[in-house]
Design brief:
Shape: globular
Oligomer: single chain
Strand order of the largest sheet: 3-4-2-1-7-8-9-6-5
Largest sheet: 9 strands, mixed
Radius of gyration: 24 Å
Strand content: 35-45%
CATH architecture of the largest domain: Roll
Number of domains: 2
Structural class: mainly beta
Length: 273
């Protein structure tokens, strides 16, 4: 490697924000991106191999108010961000070579810094391929297979947070007219407040007197909601055939196999007749 070679990173979040970083001591610019030397991002050596094995590395950096902030890390806004890494001649940025393309894994905070796994383009090859035959539906509510319209009246509701306990149990006002458990297995989406844009999975919900509702999340949001924040609740689906037919009236799009025999059928004693 010649003395004029530096490394430059471009990280593009899913919301469209793009930031550039470099280990050079001066700002570089190419492909319309400004690569700053003072943002505190660095990485270990990229491990690459011939064939279809997964490239891997790890990015580390310092949290700052101008680049990667603690609030964004805790909110998960950097998770899954697209990453490109070049070796570039800082005397002539046109002389560069792309050596890595992939995305960030989960970004976690470690003191005043962050740490994130870099996953190469071959990472999806680790995922199971093909269809799973199971009594429960394999589709996600509202996706291209399910085709259910989540904007239909009665299947969503908006309310305002009255109280938050432990970051997971919320009391909402303005939510009325839904059966107990209607939103279990569904989503809570933050519409206004510091946590706007974040969402969590609903573990349990029950109506309270006065058009109020208590909702419990499986895990707390990365940024804690506060009283006065506005939220939207999406009806939940437990992926059972009965739920699809009776609650959503969508059984034609059910993507499960409800008539499969149970697992213990394989080991049950056979009776000769």
């Amino acid at each position: 490697m010649t003395p004029t070679i530096a490394r430059a990173w471009a990280v593009a979040r899913r919301d469209g924000m793009v930031l550039g970083f470099t280990d050079h001591d001066r700002t570089l610019m190419f492909e319309g991106i400004v690569f700053r030397p003072d943002s505190g991002l660095s990485a270990r050596a990229v491990v690459q191999s011939v064939g279809l094995s997964v490239d891997n590395s790890e990015a580390v950096g310092a949290l700052s108010d101008t680049a990667i902030t603690e609030r964004d890390v805790m909110a998960g806004r950097w998770d899954g961000a697209d990453v490109r890494l070049w070796e570039v001649d800082w005397t002539d940025t046109g002389n560069r070579h792309l050596i890595f393309r992939g995305h960030l894994g989960e970004v976690v905070r470690s003191g005043a810094a962050f740490r994130a796994e870099l996953r190469g383009l071959s990472e999806p090859l680790n995922k199971a391929q093909g269809r799973v035959y199971h009594p429960h539906c394999a589709a996600a509510l509202g996706d291209g297979q399910c085709r259910f319209d989540l904007t239909r009246a009665g299947y969503w509701a908006e309310g305002v947070i009255e109280m938050v306990e432990d970051g997971q149990r919320l009391v909402l006002s303005g939510v009325d007219g839904h059966d107990p458990g209607w939103f279990e297995h569904g989503q809570l989406m933050m519409r206004l407040g510091a946590a706007e844009g974040l969402s969590g999975l609903v573990k349990a919900d029950r109506p309270l007197p006065g058009a109020r509702r208590e909702v419990e999340l499986w895990t707390a949001l990365g940024i804690g909601p506060a009283a006065g924040d506005r939220v939207r609740l999406i009806a939940g689906c437990d992926r059972r055939s009965e739920t699809c037919r009776m609650k959503f009236l969508n059984h034609l799009n059910f993507r499960g196999f409800p008539h499969l025999p149970p697992e213990d059928w394989l080991i049950a004693p056979k009776v000769n007749r």
